[in-house]
Design brief:
The complex is a heterodimer. Chain A is mainly alpha-helical. Chain A has 4 helices and no strands. In chain B, helix 9 runs antiparallel to helix 11. Classes of the chains: A mainly alpha, B alpha+beta.
Chain lengths: 93, 335
């Protein structure tokens, strides 16, 4: 069953991504939780190189492993999908 | 003709994912990491100069086709294979097999798979996926890189199957013809590990296995000499990230998938030491991921001076050291 992540976790993830990628000119409130992070019109305008930085930051911050790149590609699609994954992994551990 | 009932699953790697899906469809329950491990998929090869490559490069898995061939040898699965000189014969054979209700693996150039977002497409002649049906002028594709079956028009599949160039697919098709319902995995697992250790430690050529990782570490500092300009060098250095992470490696150049295989194998062959080695390989994989990230960063920032290239070289050399120790322990553990 999917676990509904809280707003606090979503904000935490946005802040983590921005500090990891040194994004200073975007307000986290302007980042749409549903908007694709890559190849879309997201306020953060990320590219594929940023993806691996996000995966490693999630591992460091939450102890969650995203070893499978195909799975990772689906999970790091948006703030919502990342938050759902982190909430699920935290609940399972 | 419509879609053949087929349980679509995502996979980490196209060839092992495709072989696993087809074996599962034929009634053999086996995981993708188990297929990869039994087939001795983990590997390393560095090519500083090679007729097939215009720039030095490396590989992190065995040759395309070896997963299927090793599964045939070690699990006793018989595969029917076809390749074609004439496109029309290849198209007719695929349609005939689908009409008979047989899902068929197809080798294609990834670039022509229209369901792949344009920014992810690249010309790679050794992509594998399963064709599971046809509706009108569209084929239904189970591609293990994607979460659900996709559709592909006839022309795109034709171009993908009959693309030219290095390792051209020649319309190659395969499917398992004879699959045992149950297999004792103990012997195949041990054989797969033995061969992987041999490949990494013993092949007497300087560019393969641990020796290959060391050669990569030594020669990567020379890459600027081969590049036309900074843009070209940046592109090639960033490819290190793509080769380790983005080309269906399961992450960290297949090290994570092999670690999962060892975790699963420990129970089956009753060697708990393999679980510790699995954890060790996960950490080794994290080191490869650090290399991947470092290469992506310096490439993206065009920060490719001698100091950075030396730092990259040292990181790779450290992987050679830890992998040598790891594979020696792995070899001992199955004696």
């Amino acid at each position: 069953m999917a676990i509904e992540p809280g707003e606090e976790l979503k904000m935490e993830i946005k802040t983590l991504i921005m500090s990891t990628l040194n994004i200073t000119d975007v307000d986290p409130m302007d980042v749409d939780d549903n908007e694709p992070l890559f190849g879309g019109k997201n306020a953060m305008t990320l590219d594929s190189v940023d993806g691996i930085e996000i995966i490693m930051a999630l591992q460091r911050e939450y102890g969650v492993r995203l070893n499978d790149q195909n799975l990772a590609r689906n999970i790091i699609q948006s703030i919502n999908s990342i938050a759902e994954f982190v909430a699920h992994e935290k609940a399972a551990s | 003709m419509t879609s053949i009932p087929f349980s679509h699953k995502m996979g980490a790697h196209c060839e092992s994912g495709t072989v696993t899906s087809l074996l599962n469809h034929a009634g053999l329950t086996i995981s993708e990491p188990m297929v990869f491990g039994i087939a001795s998929g983990i590997f390393f090869g560095y090519f500083h100069k090679h007729k097939s490559f215009t720039f030095p490069t490396f590989i992190v898995r065995n040759r395309p086709g070896d997963i299927r061939k090793n599964i045939r040898k070690r699990l006793g699965v018989e595969f029917q294979t076809y390749s074609f000189k004439r496109e029309q014969d290849g198209i007719a054979k695929l349609d005939e097999l689908l009409t008979r209700g047989i899902p068929v693996a197809s080798q294609v150039d990834f670039y022509y798979m229209d369901y792949v977002p344009s920014w992810e497409r690249a010309h790679v002649n050794v992509h594998f996926m399963v064709v599971i049906g046809k509706e009108g002028a569209e084929y239904i594709i189970s591609d293990s890189y994607f979460p659900k079956p996709e559709r592909l028009n006839e022309e795109s599949l034709r171009r993908g199957r009959f693309a030219g160039g290095n390792m051209s697919p020649k319309g190659f098709l395969f499917f398992p013809q004879d699959v045992p319902n149950e297999v004792d995995l103990k012997k195949p697992i041990l054989k797969g590990i033995q061969k992987a250790c041999f490949n990494m430690l013993k092949i007497p050529v300087p560019f393969v296995g641990i020796k290959g990782i060391r050669l990569f570490a030594k020669r990567v500092v020379d890459w600027p000499k081969f590049a036309r300009d900074t843009e070209h060098l940046s592109h090639e250095v960033m490819k290190i990230n793509i080769l380790l992470e983005d080309q269906g490696t399961g992450g960290a150049g297949f090290r994570f998938m092999y670690a999962t295989f060892l975790q699963q194998a420990a129970e089956i062959v009753n060697k708990p030491g393999l679980k510790d080695l699995s954890s060790e390989l996960m950490i080794i994989g994290d080191g490869w991921r650090e290399i991947s990230l470092f290469a992506a960063r310096i490439g993206k920032n065009r920060d490719l001076g001698p100091e950075k290239m030396k730092e990259l070289s040292e990181m790779i050399m450290e992987r050679a050291q830890v992998e040598e120790e790891f594979f020696k322990k792995l070899k001992q553990s199955i004696k």
